[in-house]
Description:
The complex is a heterodimer. By secondary structure, chain A is mainly β. Chain A contains no helices and eleven strands. Chain B is built from no helices and eleven strands. In chain B, the strands form two sheets. In chain B, strands 2, 4, 5, 9, 10 and 11 form a six-stranded mixed sheet that branches. Chain B has a five-stranded antiparallel sheet with strand order 1-3-8-7-6, with no helix packed on it. Classes of the chains: A mainly beta, B mainly beta.
Amino acid sequence: DGGITQSPKYLFRKEGQNVTLSCEQNLNHDAMYWYRQDPGQGLRLIYYSQIVNDFQKGDIAEGYSVSREKKESFPLTVTSAQKNPTAFYLCASIPGGTNEKLFFGSGTQLSVL
Amino acid sequence: QQQVKQSPQSLIVQKGGISIINCAYENTAFDYFPWYQQFPGKGPALLIAIRPDVSEKKEGRFTISFNKSAKQFSLHIMDSQPGDSATYFCAAKDGTYKYIFGTGTRLKVLA
């Protein structure tokens, strides 16, 4: 089945720790995104990548880092500089070209211990 | 300019009723307006989308109404069912790769 796989489903971070959220897609999509979802605030863009080895900051990139070494993979690292990391994190992708449909993964819930 | 304002924040509808969610935008460069449905603990899924060259689009019980001059668009869910209970997000996109999302509407349909 084609789709976007996010792992783990649940993740706990200790103070001062960096954690990495995985996002893999087998849809052959060009662009990939990371969104943060907090109750009542909708989806806020953290980073996006249009092609391999290139990515741009979104609206709330501080305290986060990404890489795009392969077309299929777009991992997100939540660093210790992110002081309020508790949120639901969503990875998404679009095919590119004239197809603008945004596909989402099933999300990772990150909590602080 | 980049915001999409969504209302109401929550909505309770009787089974069989019509659910209406509204969104407004300012940026006239937006040219793609999707609606997403999200169930608890899941990622959002595209429900229906419209471009500004049409005023209405219908897919089954879901209809988007689009008013270009007022810079508003709305989602109508006809014959609402308990299975429609979810959070709904409107969004807007211009010619770039960036989507702007509304803050979401939590819909509850009573049986």
